[in-house]
Amino acid sequence: MDPLPPELADCANEPIRVPGGIQPHGRLVALAADDGHLVAFSENWPAAPSLDGWPGWLPARLAALRAGEAPAALGTVALEGRRWDLTGHRVDSLALLEFEPAAEPLGLQAPVYDLARRFLPRLQEAHAVTALLALATEELKRLTGFGRCLAYRFDDEGHGEVLAESLDPGYDAYLAHRFPASDIPPQARQLYLLNQIRLIPDANYQPVPLRCVDARWRPTDIDLSWAALRSVSPLHLEYMRNMGTLASMSVSIVVRGRLWGLISCHDHAPRPVPFETRVACEHLARLLSLQIEAREDNAEVATRLELRQITLEIVSHLAESDATLRQLAEEPVLLRLARAAGAAVVLDGDCWTLGECPPVPRIQELTRRIALLGRELFHSDRLSELLPEMACGDTASDEGGHAAAGVLAISISQVHRHWILWFRPEVVQTVRWAGNPRKPIAAADGRLHPRRSFESWQEQLRGRSLPWASGELAAALELRQALIGIVLRRAEEMAEFATELGRVNKELEAFSYTVSHDLRAPMRHIAGYVDLVLDGDSERLGERSQRYLNHVKEAATYAGRLVDALLDFSRMGRAALKRGEINTNLMVAELVRELSQQQGERPVRWQVAPALPNLWGDPLLMQVVVRNLLGNALKYSRGRDPAVIEVLPLRRPDGAGLEVRDNGVGFQMKYVDKLFGVFQRLHPAEEFEGTGIGLANVRRIVERHGGSVWARGEPGHGATFGFFLPSRAQEP
């Protein structure tokens, strides 16, 4: 509920529980609960009540009262030649007794019996909540004779919407109208929950003050929260008169311990309601509350069963696939789970959508905002209040998406930004109020006044979607738990696979090391014997034989280089990392100097950015990485005049890295995934020498450091290769 404005906050702080007086249609005495001595009485007694004449019935009735219990009916007593209906209750250390003139006893014709005969069977036959309320207002009007009875339900903001009414000619109709939350201050709502029936027979009454005979008490010390005769706020009486109501009775509808709504009865003229009739009205409200709770529970159960079936369908489809959350974006049934127009799956920087969704950049920004709240589930039917740029309008469609007014989101990971979101469009609502709820309350005389107008006033509400029902929220949480289970199970399978893969990789590394080591000697022998034959017997060999032997030598030499590269690659995976602080500026400068000596007369322009970031890693291995990247840039920019090679810094809060950019031959991006594979080449060996294992070494070294590599290129326009290493603080 929105905060109350200052003038209504003053009203909300009014001491309505301890008014110091009662309504004049009854009398009250306050007795000490321990010994029964008189503490206070209402001034409409002819004289101070003398308890001497009451001992015949007083002790037994006082003994029946229990602290903290609702007022109890204590029967009918005779005083001053009249019969009185007596009720009593205990509050603090006092016993409060209330006396109201008793009507003639009706026996089996009492309203409560009539209620059981006529009303209860009809109530059980009604299926919709509105039908229940219509029966209740009709029956209350019949029982009490009030000119108008209306039933309204409170929404989440405390506004009351009239769902049923029964009225005589001459009374204003309020069906489908709303009464603003400010009409009933929070403390008054608490009293409606505590004391579930309240009668004001005459709005023009003059309060009867309480008089204390015990010097330890003052009238405003006596809590009348439970008292049926409690005097009400003058502001409320003025509110009644402004509404044209001189008598009113309110009966609370309490569902699951919450003030669900009220049945409010009005009359243009004063109207007393006998105690027996009020008891029947209170029973009616309790029966109605139980029926409403049952109908809502049944609807909730049916909804949850339907949504659970949908959840099971989603989970089964996911389990039968590769179990990646991305699959959810291909399941139209996902929309049915939350009765949404669109859904999105966000996995860190990736986003997949289904149905009518906002543009992806807005979805990513939304998940970042929601993640800051630290909730497993988030929902709102007013998304623009969280993210104003997502307010309904034409902007979203201009960016290739749909506007959304409501969002429901669940988090699938506490470590990563993995979210599933559902979106609902704007639903423009036209609300009819019983009077303008925003009309000023303070009048020219400077005194606080309640609303004076109850004429129908219409308002259009925008920027809201249909609210998310509790069953939908529960279904989303259930889906979350199921998905987490699937992800964890998938993670366990991947961990087992990784363990097995690690074992196989170690075997392969050992095998490749052994093979490459053992092949080095045969390859050198082949090349050596070919040299011996060519040097010693070249005169006896024909030109063709010499050409063949040269081919054999070249092939053996190339095979030797491949074996050496394979041996180096195997060593990269076996050597232990010896991390330290790497002076990148010095390392790059030395490598540029070394490569410059190899470039000969080629025109090469080296552009090394100043103040390169220091890296945390194995200096020898990282030198291999940077030498490979710089060497490739030099090799593949051959033929450019001049060749331009840039070394650029990369800095992030969690680490640093380098990028090497050239203006060489480049490559097609569709082959980017092959670049870092073993023996993968995108250019013919006769054009550019090499074994195709250098970039594989780069990736292996960087990944062993917990980092990442990447490449970008365009044929004829050069390429960019980069790597990133986590900082020392990020080291596991």
Task: Pick out its properties.
16 helices; 732 residues; alpha+beta; eight-stranded mixed β-sheet; Beta-Lactamase; 27 strands
Structural classification: alpha+beta
Instruction: Note the beta-strand portion.
Output: 15-25%
Shape: elongated
Tally of contiguous helical segments: 16
Runs in which pLDDT lies below 50 for 5 or more consecutive residues are 1-9, 442-449
Highest CATH level, the class of the largest domain: Alpha Beta
Number of strands: 27
> Helical content, roughly?
25-40%
N-end to C-end Cα span: 48 Å
Number of domains: 5
CATH second-level architecture of the largest domain: 2-Layer Sandwich
Major sheet attributes: 8 strands, mixed
Question: What secondary-structure arrangement, pairings included, does this model have?
Answer:
Layout: H1 6-12, E1 21-22, E2 27-32, E3 38-42, H2 58-63, E4 72-79, E5 82-91, E6 94-101, H3 111-125, H4 129-144, E7 148-154, E8 160-167, E9 177-179, H5 186-194, E10 197-200, E11 208-212, H6 234-242, E12 247-255, E13 258-267, H7 275-320, H8 333-337, E14 342-347, E15 350-355, H9 360-373, E16 377-380, H10 383-386, H11 395-398, E17 406-411, E18 418-424, E19 429-434, E20 456-461, H12 470-537, H13 543-574, E21 580-582, H14 584-598, E22 604-608, E23 615-617, H15 619-636, E24 643-652, E25 655-662, H16 694-704, E26 708-713, E27 719-726
Parallel strand pairs: 9-19, 22-24
Antiparallel strand pairs: 1-11, 2-3, 2-6, 3-11, 4-5, 5-6, 7-8, 7-13, 8-9, 10-12, 12-13, 14-15, 14-18, 16-17, 17-18, 19-20, 21-23, 24-25, 25-27, 26-27
Helix pairs in contact: 3-4, 3-7, 4-7, 7-12, 12-13, 13-16, 14-15, 15-16
